[in-house]
Amino acid sequence: MSMLTPAVQRSTLGLHTLEQYEPLIGAAGVERIAAKANRLGTMRVAHISSTFYGGGVTELLTPLTLMMNASGIETDWHLIQGTPGFFGCTKKLHNTLQGERVEFSDAEKTIYEQVVFENAMRLHLEDCDAVIVHDPQPLPLIAHFPDRDMPWLWQCHVDLSSPYAPVWAYLRRFIGQYDAAIFSLPEYGQDLGGGQHFVTPAIDPFSAKNRELSAREIGEFLGNYKIPTDRPLVTQISRFDRWKDPTGVIEAFRKARQQVDCTLVLVGNNASDDPEGGKILEAIQSAADDGIIILSVDDPTLVNALQRSAAVVLQKSLREGFGLTVTEAMWKGAAVIGGNVGGIRHQIKDGWNGFLVDTPDQAADRIVRLLKDARLRRQIGSRARESVRQNFLMSRLLEDWLDLLSRYERRVA
Ligand code: UDP
């Protein structure tokens, strides 16, 4: 007998199967990927990251781990714990990997390595056939598994185009112990001595954040947050983080509003491993005025409704590992203006399926152009959706991982 409540029968649950993708990628695509999953048989994989909540890594691992399980690969996801002091240190590492030039002191190294050691004591990975560690937070774990006999892979999700050399040299001591490193984009490749691979992120088109919404649902969700729709909406949905440049967004919006009246909605959740978010939020709240709505909430359906209803979606990042918010908005046929950096450049072809900008002035100019031209918005939006369908759906990410894991299969057998 089912243990589920009558309201939640299994048939109503999102099952995260490959078959769901058939209308999007075709039957041949589904068969090809399913055959690759079958070949890997009963492999056991463990992913390790620092937070279930917040930014892009969580967004990727949620559907990926579910799809891997639905495809027959036993996949766990472990979360490492940390103190605020630890997350202060790892945020600094994150910032230096993205190019900020600040030292990482010996005292910080001690906190970082001690907390990771404590997490290693609680992790039992003996039964795994492959371990995949995400981002710098859990990176030193590997040093505490000297007898490992399965491949360990480190996946880095940040913009690694110009890491700060002294900190990079420190982290390389750990990275060098892994069987391979995985980066989001070819330009983040590093001379590591060991193997490296590239896996571009993707989105789950069936999640609450990306599923189709009716006009009534969209109206309802915007209404819940008192977002007015009398003027066109311009939005940026991003962690409150300096690399996402919320102050540049406000500056661009103010310039654009002098020419076309519109409302700016800034939405941010707060990743539990990101200690800087509160300060950034305070700074932008003090800059807000009547036409600017700032929401600090974590509501995927609001994100969905906003990306579907905004006339313009901004992601004016100064650094961006990949930029899932761009993919999500493009999938909904939005006209997106992105910072001309990192992964955003791989998604937007300037003037074709969105715009790329370097300055607030350029962003203001593109906002005005888009607000004045509904046809341009529709044209750009439909090309945007098609480019996501071809390149950035979860089925493609699953296939990349199956290909990658099969390269390590001899060590699994
Ligand atoms: N996100 C969200 N609510 C917010 C802000 C962000 O759900 O208020 C999600 C966003 O939809 C995306 C992810 O967090 O899926 C952010 O990933 P991205 O690659 O854009 O940036 P990161 O936060 O990893 O730097």
Structural class: alpha/beta
How many β-strand runs? 12
H-E order: HHEHEHHEEHEEHEHEHEHEHEHEHHHH
What are the low-pLDDT stretches, counting only 5+ consecutive residues below 50?
none
The fraction of residues assigned to DSSP E strands is 5-15%
- CATH H level, superfamily name of the largest domain: Glycogen Phosphorylase B
Q: How many structural domains are formed by the residues?
A: 2
Number of helices: 16
Structure notes:
There is one protein chain. The protein is of the alpha/beta class and 413 residues long. The chain folds into two domains: 6-202 and 393-412, Rossmann fold, CATH 3.40.50; 215-391, 3-Layer(aba) Sandwich (Rossmann fold), CATH 3.40.50. The chain contains 16 helices and twelve strands. It has helices spanning 22-25, 27-40, 56-70, 84-97, 106-122, 165-175, 215-224, 246-257, 277-287, 300-309, 324-331, 344-347, 360-372, 374-391, 394-407, 409-412, and strands spanning 44-49, 74-79, 130-134, 152-156, 180-183, 195-198, 233-237, 263-268, 292-296, 312-315, 336-339, 355-357. The chain has a six-stranded parallel β-sheet with strand order 2-1-3-4-5-6, with helices on one face. The protein has a six-stranded parallel β-sheet with strand order 9-8-7-10-11-12, sandwiched between helices. Helix 2 (27-40) packs parallel to helix 15 (394-407), helix 4 (84-97) crosses helix 5 and helix 7 crosses helix 10. The model has no long low-confidence stretch (mean pLDDT 93). Bound molecules: uridine-5'-diphosphate. Uridine-5'-diphosphate binds at residues 55-56, 59, 209, 237-239, 267-269, 298, 300, 303, 322-325, 328.
